[in-house]
Amino acid sequence: MPLVGLGVFQIPDLNECEQTVLTAIKAGYRLIDTAALYLNESAVGNAIKKSGVAREELFITTKLWVQDAGYEKTKIAFEKSLKELQLEYLDLYLLHQSMGDYYGSWRAMEELYKEGKIRAIGISNFFPDRVVDLIAHNEVVPAVNQIEINPFYQRASEHELLKKKNIITQSWASFAEGKNEIFSNEVVTGIGHKYGKSVAQVTLRWLVQQGIGVIPKSVRQERMIENLNIFDFELAQMDMDAIATLDTGKSVFFDHRDAETADWLTKLTF
Question: CA 216 to CA 227: how far, in whole Å?
């Protein structure tokens, strides 16, 4: 799995999404991350088909939403996603949330994995206790846990746990979606000036230097290219330590374990 990919969350317009993915593939992206909830799998599929890039060179991820949790519903939802994406197999299929009958879903995903229809299965938004419990009571260890990680919510202990369990950590909302004025933050901008890099590049470099994958979203070609251009420099330890001081220990969005948030997520359908 490439460390840097393109996320297509919040690109609901199908024409715009298709063009964005085409532009990204042309710019050199090989990992595309979508989800059934995003309602743009068909656009991603169209772009893959039109790109002219061999299927085996691409890494495609999509996710199972809460409304489709459970063994039978997962099998149906998977086939629907595969049809929307116009693919014969997925590179990575994730449980989007640890809600509903996700154990039934995981059993279905294990079967699809063994059948070769999915190259790897993983999880998203799973906290440490749910990760450990899932591993303890199932056969296949998740390949990936995709969670919110950014300079304000760094989750270092969770990343260490995932490494011990041989699970790759992948960050969503790497830029905190612009919250807390990240793009004008004095610490990160100062580090950027030192290396001649943007805040986005410093942030992504900080993540991949820890072995954390990233899937930043952008619909602009120049930003896509900028986000890929992070492998020609390395942050010094003093810079890594400086970014560590920005950690608040809290999500910049919402707490998945809050009762009201859980109620909202379980009722969110498409």
Answer: 8
State the alpha helices, DSSP H only, in 92-174.
102-114, 128-136, 156-164
Boundaries of every domain in the chain: 6-267
Count Cβ atoms below 10 Å from residue 12 Cβ, excluding itself: 12
Segments of 208-255 assigned E as strands:
213-214
Look up residue 263 and give its two tokens.
Answer: 């109620």
In terms of phi and psi (left: phi > 0; alpha: psi -120 to 50; beta: otherwise), the region of 149 is: beta
Residue 73, Cβ density class (10 Å: 0-12 exposed, 13-18 middle, ≥19 buried): middle
Which top CATH class is 6-267? alpha beta
Residue ranges, the chain, pLDDT below 70: none
- What is the set of active-site residues? 38
Instruction: With CA atoms as reference, report the closest residue to 213 among 226, 227, 223.
Output: 227
Q: What is the largest CA-CA distance in the chain?
A: 54
* Cβ within 8 Å of residue 83, ≥6 positions away: none
Phi (first) and psi of residue 50, to 5 degrees: -85, -15
Rounded CA-CA distance 177/165 in Å is 29
pLDDT of residue 115: 98
Q: How confident is the model over 165-195, as pLDDT tens digits?
A: 999 999 999 999 999 999 999 999 999 999 9
By DSSP bridging, strand 92-95 and strand 6-7 are: unpaired
Backbone angles phi, psi at 62, to 5 degrees: -140, 175
